[in-house]
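TEACHING EXERCISE
Course module: macromolecular assemblies
Task: Read the component lines below, then compare them to the predicted structure of the full complex.
Student: A.B.
Group: 4
Components provided:
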Amino acid sequence: MKVSTQSVQPLAPLMGGIFPAACPSRTVLDHVSSKWGVLILVALAQGPQRWSELRRRTEGISEKMLAQTLKTLEGDGFVHRDAQPIIPPRVDYSLTSRGLDLVALLIPLLEWINENAEDIVNGS
Amino acid sequence: MKVSTQSVQPLAPLMGGIFPAACPSRTVLDHVSSKWGVLILVALAQGPQRWSELRRRTEGISEKMLAQTLKTLEGDGFVHRDAQPIIPPRVDYSLTSRGLDLVALLIPLLEWINENAEDIVNGS
DNA sequence: TAAGGTACATACATGAAAGTAAGTACCCAA
DNA sequence: TTGGGTACTTACTTTCATGTATGTACCTTA
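Instructor-supplied answer key:
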């Protein structure tokens, strides 16, 4: 196995901002890397969607977790909630510009993980 | 608040690989986004380090979690462990080339989070 | 000889995240 | 009038990640 010998770059500022135990960065990271956070974000990267579409698409999620995850993502300003006061109710969820910025960085990482995950878990 | 109206790109393959409940991708993502996983990885991005250096640098980590996190990262092939059979023991940890690939994608994301985290958590 | 350093392992406890199940309120189609 | 759809909320339970505490084995310095 190849081994890196050197550092990538000076990361001092990053270290200061991420290492403290209860920092904002940690909070945000926990939100997006929560069990369903990533899934919702990449689902919404495919375009605005309704509650029931997200629920069907995100296989295995419970209604509670869908509501909860959408709420924190909305609270963080990643997701926009558009509720139309009609009956039956119609609610559309979409990414905000901040959400788009985030997924733009998230997608390459997830693609890499997706491509390498099998090799990684079976140790090759 | 600005709202995106359209999808970013076709992400179909990603959806298939990440959405299943107990998929390899999920496992790997959980490993790297675990409470201490990211920290250890960016710490090692600054160059090879010894156990005690990592322990001091990663403020607040317990020895149990350091050992555990290093083991899973080593098991995933992100981290290389070099133990010299001397007394007192000397063990150097470093990123593998796979680990380097990963942090190369991780760093931009973490920098973005670090820059925006404060605005995000206090809702502005 | 007592304290502190190296690098861990292991048993037990806790707490937060996630799951389960049920309820709400309204409408429509069979 | 029974079942299904819209979009949720709430109470309770379980599971798993993480924390705490202590032990190991050897060496060096005060």
